[in-house]
Amino acid sequence: MSTHSTRTGLLLAVAALLFFLCPLFVSRYTIFVLNLFAIYALVAIGLNLVMGYTGLISAGHAGFLAIGAYTTAILSTSMGWMSPLVILPIAGVLTGLIGFALGIPILRLKGFYIAMVTLAFGVVVAEVVLQWSSLTHGDDGYKVPRAVLGGFIFDSDVKLFFLIQPITIAMTLIARNIVRTRAGRAFKAIRQSEVASETMGIDLAKYKTAAFAVSAFYTGIAGGLFAYAVGHISPDSFSMSVSIDFIAMIVIGGMGSILGSIIGAVILTGIQHALSELPEVQTLIFGIALIVFMIFLPKGIGGKIPDLMQSILRRNRNH
Amino acid sequence: MLLQVIVNGIATGCIYSLMALGLTLIYKSTEHVNFAQGEMSMVSGFVAFTFFQMLGFSIAFSLFMCLVSSIILGLLMERLLVRPAMRAPHFNVFIITLGASIVMQSGAGLIWTYDQFPFPSPFPGKALSLGLIRIDGVSLGIMGTTALLMVGLYLFFKHSKTGTAMRAVSQSQNAALLMGISVKRSFALTWAISGFISGVAAVLIAPVIFLSTRMGLVVINGFAAAILGGWGSIPGAVLGGIALGILENVAPYYFPSQIRNIIPFAVLVGVLILKPTGIMGEETKRRV
């Protein structure tokens, strides 16, 4: 067993090394897309924590993304000396606090009502961004200053790659640990039965608001990275359809699976960029995928992976 | 003047009531939430458009085909999308109808483009003056049709055998099944009726706001109306719709006009936070 785990560790290290060397070999556009993959993977993980693990539908995560992005953009403008390693956590924590605040009224609500409140929340955030133009420059959009870390300016996609990817990897590992702890088990229990988990002594109020707060924190950080990566943000980037794309990511990738979140984010962002000339076809594909996965594969691709691994292991054992 | 605004609000509100009613009927009988209710309206509106604009049929026949197609659409939704997931959690069905709404919206965009098209109203444009207020023919038509549809539905559910059977199914599927009622048939019928209501809504709303793929977004107002009235209550849906319509028309009077866009969302959040049961809704008891 120990040789097995050291071998996996070695494999992972080699994979990580190759991954961080890839800016040497691939085009700048590819790097930009890889950065977006990482950003949306963070969003998908965040959404999955609240929706896939805890079972609370959120149709307003674009709102959290917007808060993170605009906080980062505004802080970088007004306090340019601050490093992204300070600005991003501020953006994350602020978004997390708003997520926490949104989680409180949601405690009284069930299933579809939560979907409606979060949906409305997302739209209201986009509308506030649009109307509060003295702060956000409204419809014109906001030009995000470059991230500056101790004199080093992240002024290209390749440089940003080394900011975005390590943060995403670290936060993915943290999420993987969160879902394995007491909190993660509480989330899953709540999804399966609120009444049963309450009976087992799980503090519903605590864990539901925590799920929203952590989820919003992840999405807020992703929003900050998004602002840096695209350089120009406007209310259009955070519309209701964006929130629905996020839902599609985790439905396809797999609800209740961290790996699935990443897979879903990569697949959807990949489709978006491959079909950027044909937005109608894109959304058509997303819609069909939502239906097909929900009917035939409700646990998504990520939910299938453990089964596949098991069958492979079993085959190996038989040999 | 305020009275005039309120009357206009009632006309808008009637459309929201129809949306809310379609949502509520499906929820009451199957406990499913149909996010595609507005898109069903939009698609049947475009079917009518195809008949009169592209194929040259008469307006009356096209509007009739709009209603027919809306019923077919309701039945298709039930048979193809909802029934396969009947045993799945309601969560899944919600996502499925969400997917359906995206498919219909982008599909309609591919077929009929994203432009806005004028849509003929079946009602005369002549306005009716009642003292200080004037009600134009279209608004009067909307209110009259909505009222007629409500009375029709009431009589159907209260006095027809099928309607009674459907009410039985919504109370207890098992008991209804034991009484020899086909639950599946009842579900299909619910979706057909709901589809029909969405078709009527299309005929009423498209002349006012133009026909476009964005028309389906009216479902949000429908949700806001249904929740304001009390989710799951049929009189609540009607009342909530009218209240929302009035609110939307009166608010720009006192606040900046942009407020109109966020009224339904503000209502959603406000009602769910302050009084989730709405005006007429009942507290649901948790069954363990």
Structure description:
- The complex is a heterodimer of chains A (319) and B (288).
- In chain A, 77% of the residues lie in helices and 3% in strands.
- With 319 residues, chain A is mainly alpha-helical.
- Chain A has a domain at 28-239.
- Chain A is globular.
- With 288 residues, chain B is an all-alpha fold.
- Chain B has one domain: Orthogonal Bundle (ABC transporter involved in vitamin B12 uptake, BtuC).
- Chain B contains 11 helices and 2 strands; from the N terminus they run ααααββααααααα.
- In chain B, a hairpin with a 2-residue loop joins strand 1 (127-130) and strand 2 (133-136).
- In chain B, helix 10 (234-254) crosses helix 11.
- Chain A binds chain B through residues 55, 57, 105, 108-109, 111-113, 115-117, 119-121, 123-124, 127, 131, 195, 244, 247-248, 251, 280-284, 286-291, 294-295, 298, and chain B through 33, 81, 84-85, 88, 90-96, 98-107, 109-110, 220, 223, 227, 231, 258, 261-262, 264-266, 268-269, 272-273, 276, 286, 288.
Order of helices and strands of chain A: HHHHHHEEEHHHHEHHHH
Number of self-contained structural domains of chain B: 1
Beta-strand content of chain B: under 5%
Task: Give start-end ranges of low-pLDDT stretches of chain A.
Answer: none
**CATH C-level label of chain B:** Mainly Alpha
First-last Cα distance of chain B:
53 Å
Low-confidence stretches of chain B: none
Q: And the CATH topology of chain B?
A: ABC transporter involved in vitamin B12 uptake, BtuC
Order of helices and strands of chain B: HHHHEEHHHHHHH
Task: Give average pLDDT of chain A, whole number.
Answer: 87
* Total beta strand runs of chain B: 2
Largest sheet data of chain A: 2 strands, antiparallel
C-alpha Rg of chain B (nearest Å): 19 Å
Shape of chain B: globular
What is the SS-derived class of chain B? Answer: mainly alpha
Our count of helices of chain B gives: 11
